[in-house]
Amino acid sequence: KYNGYVEINYFKVPVAFTCSSTFKNKPLFVRPAQREGIGFISVHGSGCVAYDVGLGKTMTAILSLAQALESGQCKRPFIVVPNQTYKNWLSELRGVVDKGKVLLSGLLPQYQVIDLYNLGTEFIDQLRDEKVNIKPVPEYTISVLTYEGFNRLGFNDDTWSTIGDELYDILNQGTEEKRDIVKLGEKINEMMGKGIKGGSVNIEDLGFDYMVVDEAHAMKKSFTQVKGEVKGDGENTTRSKTSYQIRSGSPSMTALRGFMISQYILRNNKMRNVLLLTATPFTNSPLEIYSILALIGYQQLEKAGIKNIKEFFDTFIKTSMELVINAKLKPERREIVMGFNNLIALQSLIFKFITYKTGEDAKIQRPNKIVLPLLSKKEGNEIIPLPTEEQISTNLPMTQRQKEYMDDVELYVTGKTSLTNFCVNTKGFEDSEEGTEDENAGEALDEKHLSSDEEEGTRILRGMSFARQLALSPYLYACNQDKHPTHIQYIESSPKLMYVMECIRSVKRYHEENEQEVSGQVIYMNAGVHFFPLIKEYLVQKIGYKDDEVGIIKSGLSAAKKEGIKERFLAGDVKIIIGSATIKEGINLQNRSTVLYNCWLDWNPTDVKQLEGRIWRFGNMYANIRIVNPLMEDSIDTFIFQKLEEKTSRINEIWYRAGKTNALNLEEFNPSELKMGLVTDPYALAELILMEERERLQDEITGLTNQKTVLEEIAEQREIFNKNIDHVKKIANKYRPQKDTEKARSIETIFKIYKDYLDDEDTEYNYKDQTVYDQVRKANAAVKRGIEQILAPRGLDIGFDFKKVTGQMDKEVEQKKKYMEEKTGDKAIQDKGKEIIKDRIKKGYKPKTVAERVKEFSSLNPRLLSELMVYDTSEEAKTKQSEQKRKGVALEGTADRLTKIIQLRESFKRMKNRLEQI
């Protein structure tokens, strides 16, 4: 039932709409990928355009809206966008007009664009009539609002009473007792600030009938756990225990609101009119796959037989207890999602709702991307490890100071010391930013009242945070009392930052020595934002950049300031951008960029993909770009790469279909290789290697023990079967006598005849007949399963000798236990560690210094920095570059003056308060 979907050639789907013949003052060119996307949305009415960064999702959505408006599919569409791309959407829709003159042509100048921004008072007032009531937006207009505005949309009481309870049931995955429904409703209402009901503006008043969501992955967390099935009916309902120990945090307010409003739009528009845009629809969880599919097609999922998230997992998801590296940097067993069952069926389901394209699919002209560390290369369809001398590693050794701090953290995590013994001030200066809020944050706990398990969990989580801080800089480490370094102290105490500074110097030097314009470089870290000015100071004082050639983009800056820095960077005036999570989405930095340094590893591979898309996109003048990931040896990077490995393999498996490239290419960034490479302590590495073997042997021992238990059941069921089967055969033969010419009846045929006998109203069977039937069927199933799984592989049949077979199993268990201790015990770990040391001495292994790693990086400069793409060198292009620079300078100047005015006002306010106190 899941495979009955035939792919459609969307290029052959007729589309028709009116739009501008020019876009951004150039002839409009609709790429094949965009044409295909318009056809996809036209056929399905709703869907998700999951195109790679830079492929034109915005244009696809705008032209799809044009078709929907002209065909009568909708009259009042609205678009939800992130704050940082808001102005871009307005300009691409209507163009830029100043004093009646069109400065930049938009796609749909014939439609009025309603600027609703954050649905604040000044934006809502434009929609009020003379009685101050909110009236619907005019027909055939396009409304645009930010996510902040979206979270102010609500339902009126009539809508809520009609669909509110049903939406609760869907989100809860089944109706339970009335008391539990009330509790769930209260929880959702509390989480959503009175929920969707009671928002500042009711969606019915505005008349919206088509929803477009940009960066829709912000709505992927509406279903975050697999619940057991609801059993019973009426007042007596219970929920069985779930068989999946997998969660994905708590539902986000935006995702819940998105699901509810999408359901409102779908139900009122024949299950059409919801369009999602994202380059990364899913990240690390099958729960997110289900959430996104439910957002655009919950009812279609039900029709396909997927009635709830448990059925989705039962049908498609493959889980396993696997060896992973935990937050203690030690191996452990944990249930994780390993892959997918019925993958072709799952892909058919996904591609029915989502049109997905990579840059390679769309043949977009982008630079060649080189991801460091570079350990392998692709030849044809094969991934081949590079020879050692050709590898470019970014592994960096910790300083002695970092090692000493890390020893303290390890003692704390393992419970051998208390926090107060080594950590005076736990505040620190990690100060991570937007996009990292803890959606799972709960009630704060008093550590004095924690259980031993809770205490251990607290130590592990805190230790993981400490280790992550240390991997970047000892000054970010919460337990370092020195919180006020100079720019030299901050950079030169961190191998990661020192490596980045020297790599930047090598790029700058290469360009200058070859009399070339110095290319742009981007430093990303969503931590240590407080210290960004120190990084800038070092770049100016030590590397030789001018003060105005280094820009900082972070939260808290005005939109004009960020836009000004971006425009000057694109024009080549700013050479270095130091950015926090603010730059990950909606800020394109590609024009003259050659390197992006990722100093703060994000947990999700799709976050990495979004980040790479800042410079790896169409329009870059350089033919090659580098994505550099500096990695610390013996650090928390091991744990993060374990998570990346788990998530990457899962995403790749979904999208790899009929020759499509992977979402994150493993040959570029193979966490499995790096996981071992980052652990350099020979005895820790030995334990990691042998733990895999120990777990394998332990699984075999556990398997034999389980087989013994199953054999006991088989022997018992064999006795029940032999005792009662003659009664079943006798009744079956009496009810439907066997003909002389008929072949010997199989046991299944006998059971079917016996069942017909029980179901026949004219027969007078007794209670014993029914009981015997149930017992024999159960016994037959157990025996059959036992033969297939245990007896047949051992060359045995149903007539096995129970004592003899289980005795042999006991001997095998003892032998395996003895072998396991010999091969994986403490002595074996010591021997393996010594073997690794000898092997390293033989190969001449030694950790490389920062200077040596920088030399590896800079060896690529001549090849990668000298090759340019074919780009526009006309006078018009140069004029545009100059205008871009002037625009950036003007925006930054305005923003800086406004900031000074605000600071002066605050100073006057403080002075006034002080005078009043005096």
Describe, in short, the structure shown:
By secondary structure, this protein is an alpha/beta fold. The longest helix is centred in the last third of the chain and has 54 residues, at 682-735.
Note the topology.
Layout: E1 22-23, E2 26-27, H1 32-44, E3 47-51, H2 57-70, E4 77-81, H3 86-94, E5 96-98, E6 101-104, E7 112-117, H4 121-124, E8 141-146, H5 147-150, E9 153-154, H6 157-172, H7 178-191, E10 201-202, H8 203-206, E11 210-213, E12 230-233, E13 236-239, H9 253-267, E14 274-277, H10 286-303, H11 309-316, E15 317-325, E16 331-340, H12 343-353, E17 354-357, E18 368-372, E19 376-379, E20 382-385, E21 395-396, H13 400-413, H14 419-422, H15 452-472, H16 487-492, H17 495-513, E22 520-524, H18 532-543, E23 550-553, H19 559-570, E24 576-579, E25 593-598, H20 605-612, E26 624-628, E27 631-632, H21 637-655, H22 671-678, H23 682-735, H24 747-759, H25 767-791, H26 802-824, H27 826-843, H28 850-858, H29 861-865, H30 875-917
Task: Walk me through this protein's architecture.
This protein has four domains: 10-318 and 339-357, Tandem AAA-ATPase domain (Rossmann fold); 368-395 and 486-676, Rossmann fold (3-Layer(aba) Sandwich), CATH 3.40.50.300; 400-438 and 446-484, no CATH class; 690-824, no CATH class. Residues 190-195, 234-248, 323-331, 434-446 and 658-678 have low confidence and may be disordered. It starts with 21 loop residues before the first strand and ends with a helix. The strands form nine sheets. It has a seven-stranded parallel β-sheet with strand order 7-8-4-11-14-3-17, with helices on both faces. Helix content is 48%, strand content 13%. The radius of gyration is 32 Å and the shape is globular. Helix 23 packs antiparallel against helix 26 (802-824). By secondary structure, it is α/β, with parallel strands linked by helices. Strand 15 and strand 16 form a beta hairpin. The chain contains 30 helices and 27 strands.
